[in-house]
Amino acid sequence: MQSSGSFPHILVLFLSTNVALAQISTAPEGRANRYLESIRRQPSLVLAFLREMPKGGDLHNHLGGSIYAEELIDYAVRDNLCLDQSTRTVVPGPCESCGKQASKPAVECGYRDPELYNSMIDAWSMRNWHPGQESGHDHFFASFSKFGLAMRKHTAEAIAAAMERAAADHLEYVELMHTFGGSAAAEVGARTGWNPDFAVMREQFLGGGIKEVVAAARQELDSNEHAIQEKLACQNPARPPACQVGVRYLYQVQRGLPPPQVFAQILTGFELASVDPRVTGLNLVMPEDFYVPMHDFHLHMKMLDFLHSIYPNVHISLHAGELAMGLVPPEGLGFHIRESIELGHAERIGHGVDVMNEGKPLELLKEMARRNVLVEICLTSNDVILGVRGDEHPFPIYRKYGVPVALATDDEGVSRSDMTHEYLRAAKTYGLSYLDLKGMARESLEHGFLPGASFWADIIAKRPVGACLSDRSESSGGLSVACRRFLQTSEKARLEWKLEQDFSTFEKRF
Question: What does the pLDDT read at residue 38?
Answer without folding.
Answer: 97
